[in-house]
């Protein structure tokens, strides 16, 4: 999903720069904002996952289960 969307945004921005049509410029701005939001969400999830993995590695030792 990110690759097609990541190519749609620059294409829309280029079209907006050439035509300067208000609807196209508006679409370019909205699409760019959505792309940045997706980047932020993915970055936050990546950092959260990395920190969770680190916490699991340095966390307290697990107790063995007695039979």
Q: Can you give a write-up of this model?
A:
- The N and C termini lie far apart (49 Å).
- It is rod-shaped and about 70 Å long.
- The mean pLDDT is 85.
- Helix 1 packs antiparallel against helix 2.
- The chain contains two helices and no strands.
- It is an all-alpha fold and 67 residues long.
- The protein has one domain.
Which features would summarize this protein structure in a list?
mainly alpha; 82% helix
Helix content: over 70%
Q: Would you count the extended β strands for me?
A: 0
Spatial gap, N to C terminus? 49 Å
Outline: rod-shaped
Flag low-confidence runs.
none
Strand proportion, as a percent range, falls in under 5%
Overall pLDDT metric: 85
Number of alpha- plus pi-helical segments: 2
Question: How many discrete domains?
Answer: 1
Helices and strands, in N-to-C order?
HH
Structural class: mainly alpha
Largest sheet: none
Q: What would you report as the Rg, rounded to the nearest angstrom? A: 21 Å
Write the layout of secondary structure elements.
Layout: H1 2-19, H2 22-58
Short account of what is shown:
This protein has 67 residues and is mainly alpha-helical.
